[in-house]
Amino acid sequence: MKALLTLAFVVIFATAGLAQTHYISSNTKIIVIAGSTEKFDSPDIFCLGYYDVLTGDYKVTVMVAPTGTTEIVKSFDIIIAYASVDDEFGGFDASEDFILSLDLAVVNDYLQPLNVSTTFTLH
């Protein structure tokens, strides 16, 4: 019985890290900060959003990494009013899928005007 429980424990934790990582990629060099001249060559952009109960805003931490790596070379926050989330998405849903979609949409909406000729792909 002990061996069976140990095996189950190992299988559960060995597969726990296999979850899909969602990110945004681009087809060319991009600017990630408005007014900056610093460009990143087709980076992968990871994002982590959360509702800040203290301010009432929705915040997305944006992390920029060279293509194919997870080495973060730039990080910044995008802050949007909770009312904007409500207006654009018809309310807030605490499900993982909704939050992921919201994070990717917020970052894409922020980056597209800074890089008008760039194609962003949501993965």
Question: How is this structure best described in words?
Answer:
The chain is an alpha+beta fold and 123 residues long. Helices cover 33% and strands 31% of the residues. The protein has helices at 2-15, 82-89, 96-114; strands at 24-26, 29-31, 39-41, 44-52, 57-65, 74-81, 120-122. It has a five-stranded antiparallel β-sheet with strand order 6-5-4-1-7. A two-stranded antiparallel ribbon has the order 2-3. A hairpin with a 7-residue loop joins strand 2 and strand 3. The longest helix is centred in the C-terminal third of the chain and has 19 residues, at 96-114. The chain is globular, with a radius of gyration of 18 Å. The termini are far apart. Mean pLDDT is 80; it is low at 1-19.
Name its key features:
alpha+beta, globular, 5-stranded antiparallel sheet, 123 residues, 33% helix, 31% strand
Structure, briefly:
With 123 residues, this protein is an alpha+beta fold. It is built from 3 helices and 7 strands, in the order αββββββααβ.
What gross morphology would you assign?
A: globular
Average pLDDT: 80
Strand order of the largest sheet: 6-5-4-1-7
Q: N- to C-terminal separation?
A: 42 Å
Rg result: 18 Å
Number of strands: 7
Q: Given the helix and strand composition, which structural class is it?
A: alpha+beta
Count the DSSP helices. Answer: 3
Low-confidence stretches: 1-19
